[in-house]
Amino acid sequence: MNATKILQQGRQPMIRFLGKRTTPSTIDHTPKVHPASPTHSLPESFASYRQKAQQHGPLNQTNKFSTGIGSSSGSSLGPIEAGKGSFFDRSELPQRFQRLSWSQAEIEAVESGGASLFA
Amino acid sequence: MFRSIMPRALPRAVRPTPITRSTFCASNIYFQGRSKRGYASEAEEKDLVIIGGGVAGYVAAIKAGQAGLKVACIEKRGALGGTCLNVGCIPSKSLLNNSQLYHQILHDTKHRGIEVGEVTLNLQALMQAKDTSVSGLTKGVEFLFKKNNVEYIKGTGAFQDEHTVAVNLIEGGETTVRGKNILIATGSEATPFPGLTIDEKKVITSTGAIALQEVPKKMTVIGGGIIGLEMASVWSRLGTEVTVVEFLGQIGGPGMDAEVAKQTQKILAKQGIIFKLNTKVTKGDAEGEGVSISTEAAKGGKEESIDADVVLCAIGRRPYTNGLGLENIGLETDDRGRLIIDQEYRTKIQHIRAIGDVTFGPMLAHKAEEEAVAAVEYLTKGYGHVNYGAIPSVMYTHPEVAWVGQNEQELKAAGVKYRVGSFPFSANSRAKTNLDTLGFVKMLSDAETDRILGIHIIGPNAGEMIAEGVLAIEYGASSEDVARTSHAHPTLSEAFKEAAMATYDKAIHY
Prior knowledge:
The complex is a heterodimer.
Chain A: H1 2-9, H2 44-52, H3 104-111
Chain B: E1 46-51, H1 55-66, E2 71-75, H2 82-87, H3 89-107, H4 123-147, E3 150-159, E4 164-169, E5 174-184, E6 188-190, E7 203-204, H5 206-209, E8 218-222, H6 226-237, E9 241-245, H7 258-270, E10 274-276, E11 279-285, E12 291-297, E13 303-308, E14 310-313, E15 317-319, H8 326-329, E16 352-354, H9 365-380, E17 393-395, E18 400-405, H10 408-414, E19 418-424, H11 429-433, E20 440-446, E21 452-459, H12 462-475, H13 479-483, H14 493-504
Parallel strand pairs in B: 1-2, 1-5, 2-3, 5-16, 7-14, 8-9, 8-14, 9-10
Antiparallel strand pairs in B: 3-4, 4-5, 6-15, 11-12, 12-13, 17-18, 18-21, 19-20, 20-21
């Protein structure tokens, strides 16, 4: 009878299909020990670096998009205008926003009305 | 007055196609495509800069390219693929395969009914075959770079600051490349033996061992790990008298099951390799024509001197970070020179990650490959995964040795109750027809749940067979699951199934 019972139950394999692989909905990105680390501990420098480092905002934020500014929408970052009463000069901006210097050939082209290009 | 139609600060890509001077139109329009203007002064910032084009680096580069990132990969060797493709796994497999073929033609044909005439070795051609395989594969990787839009920078990279890598180009000159993220994949190098200077001719590492110009009469191998034994096999088959000196009491290095190690040693000794275990090399002398090393018993005592034409140092590998400029960004390494990383492969500087031999874990190409994919996925998707409990190890001697998971001595030390089942290839029909019956499959499973904890194989094609074991461990299978899965007849894989049967019940054919 016991044998029949077992037959009726059938064998339950340990491997079972769990469905399509999905990414967990929440992931904690705070540094933890690497699974293959021989010491099973992270050095103090990891925490102290994060304390002082600012990379597109504080590193300690734990939301999903903490790894980069590119993953948040522009509007969520707030307005880009300078606050009331504060001003900045164009020369304070990164190089690519600054005025370009004229080359000698261009100056000559302007002064000659473009004639220097054909000279 | 000259006035451009498009604003000057617009990037060139946005501007209309340059108008050539042969086109007849107003003169000022000729200025629109001028190359001096726009953002051309500085190279664009990459999404990912990878230092090292080895297995870890090139796989990460391709994966990142596929994900649409702007990637640059810096490699100083002049060929992609790193140690594995150029001087490691791949060339050694070529030599192992062809030397085995030569050995078999010499010694293992008559009783199969094949009469062969005079057999001679052409070492130069043997090496040529190896080089052809290597160059084919490295060029293949270069093609994949082009296909996946990876910029390949040939040169030596060093950190200038946290986002900038200065590259000393192979063809001369320097350049810098900036990256939002940087991946260190600089790999490892052979650990030299203190007191012996590596010249890759008389005192060699694995790099020299795959490029010897003639077959040495005598070779001493310091270190009985996987690399040492594979190279010992190659040269022993080609006619060298090889002595392997190992400090520990077993060959194969850590991880190999003691029973497997013992059996393997027996088989290799039968093939002509001389083993000196529990033996410490105290000093070496390469002054004379050959190389002489002095040894003593590891626990003190008997001293001996071994002379050879060539000494192979195969005592292990160490992470390679020389000249990387880690001091410029304040990155530290641990006591063994490994870069310290967290669970997402990040160093303490968040956007700088490290994978492969340069950081924790076994120094294996397939482990580096897994990490490369996971690290890029962390970058692009925020989630990646590597199961360090299911990484196989393979030694490509003949017969091959392969294992995954835990071995018997580890289980005993951890106090885990387990069951053992094994099946010899001498009882497997296919092995019998192939006249290649050395070895066995051994399976360890949890005594209570029957979940497979470790699989250890010595035998023909063990390296291929272990894939099934890795899958079983990855899926958390029981030995009964494997045993109840149909395996084709007649194949070597039936031995695997029968070992599983022996673990949970009884094997049929033994």
